[in-house]
């Protein structure tokens, strides 16, 4: 487990290497007295390294054709509170087949490789920032 300081008021803790099928858990913590806004906290932005490029892994917030409420735009991270980003190493897609008008959500284990998660946050001055944490799946 390693801890990385993303900004003055955000620390990220996670492993650098995960086994295939192991649940990825990334913790964000606010060690400061200032409130931090994490942007789009319930959505997972995962990319896989493909040569020199990064390719987005499709991780859906809501099952195919389900009428879920929209995800929150922001979540406050107060002093000593934390937020966990959990990913099951699955890439999602929707089946063409419909049952009662609803397509089935297909989950497929991702391949081994180098991945990164995108963390979106707002600085105390209201500026939007991104941080990418890289990890490996063996």
Characterization of this structure:
By secondary structure, this protein is mostly beta strands. It has one domain (2-137): Immunoglobulin-like, CATH 2.60.40.2550. It is built from no helices and 13 strands. It has strands at 2-7, 10-14, 17-18, 24-29, 36-39, 46-50, 53-57, 74-77, 82-87, 90-99, 102-109, 113-122, 128-137. Strands 3, 5, 6, 7, 8, 12 and 13 form a seven-stranded mixed sheet that branches. It has a four-stranded antiparallel sheet with strand order 1-2-4-9, with no helix packed on it. The chain has a two-stranded antiparallel ribbon with strand order 10-11. It is globular and about 50 Å long. The model has no long low-confidence stretch (mean pLDDT 93).
Offer a few descriptive terms.
mainly beta, Immunoglobulin-like, seven-stranded mixed beta sheet, four-stranded antiparallel beta sheet, 138 residues, 13 strands
Summarize the structure.
The protein has 138 residues and is mainly β. The chain has no helices and 13 strands.
For the biggest sheet, the summary is:
7 strands, mixed
Question: What proportion of the residues is helical, as a percent range?
Answer: under 10%
**DSSP summary, beta strand count:** 13
Continuous helix count: 0
Low-confidence blocks of residues: none
Strand fraction: over 45%
Under the CATH scheme, which class? Mainly Beta
How many individual domains? 1
The topology string of helices and strands comes to EEEEEEEEEEEEE
What layout of secondary structure does this protein have?
Elements: E1 2-7, E2 10-14, E3 17-18, E4 24-29, E5 36-39, E6 46-50, E7 53-57, E8 74-77, E9 82-87, E10 90-99, E11 102-109, E12 113-122, E13 128-137
Parallel strand pairs: 3-13
Antiparallel strand pairs: 1-2, 2-4, 4-9, 5-8, 5-12, 6-7, 6-12, 10-11, 12-13
């Amino acid at each position: 487990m390693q801890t990385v300081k993303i900004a003055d008021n955000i620390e990220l803790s996670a492993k650098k290497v995960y086994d295939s099928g192991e649940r990825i858990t990334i913790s964000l913590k606010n060690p400061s007295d200032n409130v931090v806004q994490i942007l789009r906290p319930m959505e997972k932005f995962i990319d896989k390294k493909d040569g020199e490029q990064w390719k987005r892994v499709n991780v859906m917030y809501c099952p195919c054709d389900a009428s879920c409420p929209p995800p929150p735009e922001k979540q406050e991270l107060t002093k000593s509170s934390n937020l966990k980003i959990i990913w099951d190493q699955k890439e999602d897609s929707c089946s063409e087949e419909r049952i009662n008008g609803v397509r089935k959500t297909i989950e497929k284990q991702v391949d081994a490789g180098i991945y990164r998660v995108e963390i979106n946050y707002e600085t105390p001055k209201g500026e939007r920032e991104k941080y990418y944490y890289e990890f490996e799946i063996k």
